[in-house]
Amino acid sequence: MTASDAAATAPDAAIGPVRQSEIYLAGRLPEPPVDPDALRAAAEAALPEAAFAYIDGGAGTGSTMAENRHALDRWRIVPRMLASAEQRHSGVDLFGRALRSPLLLAPIGVQELAHADGDLATARAAATEQVPMIFSNQASVPMEETAEAMGDAPRWFQLYWSRSDDLIASLIARAEDAGCDAIVVTLDTPLLGWRNRDLDLASLPFLHAKGIAQYLSDPVFRAMLSDPPEDDPMAAIARFLAIYTNPAIGWADLPALCARCRLPVLVKGILDPADAERAIDAGVDGIIVSNHGGRQVDGAVGAADALERIVAAVGTNVPILFDSGIRSGADMFRALALGARAVLIGRPYIYGLAVAGEAGVRAVIRNLLAEFDLTMALAGCRTIAEIDRSRIIRRE
Ligand SMILES: Cc1cc2nc3c(=O)[nH]c(=O)nc-3n(C[C@H](O)[C@H](O)[C@H](O)COP(=O)(O)O)c2cc1C
Ligand SMILES: CC(C)CC(=O)C(=O)O
């Protein structure tokens, strides 16, 4: 049994109470703040305007981001009493690996925008807290260096479906060598969404060399350039923009992609039940219900509403993960009760990174898991399996 397996199987009897005491007894204000709105405001204060706008922003008017919150809030938890929930166990098994909790860090590009230590600070925090980090295709640091910072802690790799098959093959092989446990293929970003705040600032901060670190470190990508990217960075960025996604791909292409991966494949960005069925038919090992944190289609369905419909259509034999709008342990509970096997958080940990680097990411993870543990205790659940649909009701 590895250290992470042991952590995942031991009952986490007191995560929430331990964290509460730490904060109450410390005699100083927690940094970053616990409250999600205060956390966001602290990140805004810590960052240049354009960096915060890019990280915080959504597509168009931001209505999908708002709808993500409403869609989660509509589900109300029904606590049960006298459930003998003193000992709680929040470990889950995903693709044969025992995880400490049903929480992962979503792939987030260009983390150096939030903090100089960027992906490496996140990686160290994730490893310490034993929460899987999903390396972004658009990371600021090559995946080999990020993996090195994590020891044997769990990590996955997120792939954008490039126009170049050779580049896809190279990135997948590198992810396997870097010890990733799964490949997440993001489907909802064949083109970048219309992002009002970035447009008004005429700033797209991921468009600089650090945002293409996975590519600059890739032999297949480098071979596509006439000059080394160190000599002509703009040509490298132009090449990246020309090939990093492929809007022409369709469902018929997915089985071949799944077949070429030795690792489990998840598709991220599924919102429609029929698409979930197609993905399962194509052979995916998991689905991530997500609207990219409201960054792609303004006016899109709230992610939790999509989750409910997708679980109703395809069940939960193929693991369904969820992101977009999770801000609290109560939100984690709601998503699990709707049928998610685990959830991802995006902006909250990046806000923590912006405010306090590695320690900030750790604090965000610990606060979230503490609140989740207390929600389980107070709702009367001892295990993740007990968090089922009977625990929530929908208010209109
Ligand atoms: C600044 C930023 C960069 C992101 N970069 C990526 C990325 O490189 N790949 C990807 O699949 N999703 C990316 N996402 C989407 C996240 O993985 C995730 O779906 C989303 O943040 C979840 O919503 P939340 O922020 O409300 O938790 C990004 C999101 C943000 C906020
Ligand atoms: C399109 C990517 C480069 C980054 C991303 O996924 C995002 O900004 O939401």
From TrEMBL:
Q: So where does FMN get bound? A: 107-109, 136, 158, 186, 268, 290, 323-327, 346-347
Q: Which cofactor does it need?
A: FMN
Domain of life assignment: Bacteria
- Record field: transmembrane: none
Keywords, in A-Z order: Flavoprotein, FMN, Monooxygenase, Oxidoreductase
Q: Mind listing the GO molecular function terms for this protein?
A: FMN binding; monooxygenase activity; oxidoreductase activity, acting on CH-OH group of donors
Task: Name the residues annotated as catalytic in the UniProt entry.
Answer: 292 (proton acceptor)
Any idea where the FMN hydroxy acid dehydrogenase domain is?
A: 28-396
Q: Which InterPro entries match?
A: Aldolase_TIM, Alpha-hydoxy_acid_DH_FMN, FMN-dep_DH, FMN_HAD, FMN_hydac_DH_AS
Q: Which residues bind glyoxylate?
A: 54, 160, 195, 292, 295
Q: Record's family?
A: Belongs to the FMN-dependent alpha-hydroxy acid dehydrogenase family.
PANTHER family in alphabetical order: FMN-DEPENDENT ALPHA-HYDROXY ACID DEHYDROGENASE PB1A11.03 (PTHR10578:SF143), S -2-HYDROXY-ACID OXIDASE-RELATED (PTHR10578)
Under what name is this protein listed?
Lactate 2-monooxygenase
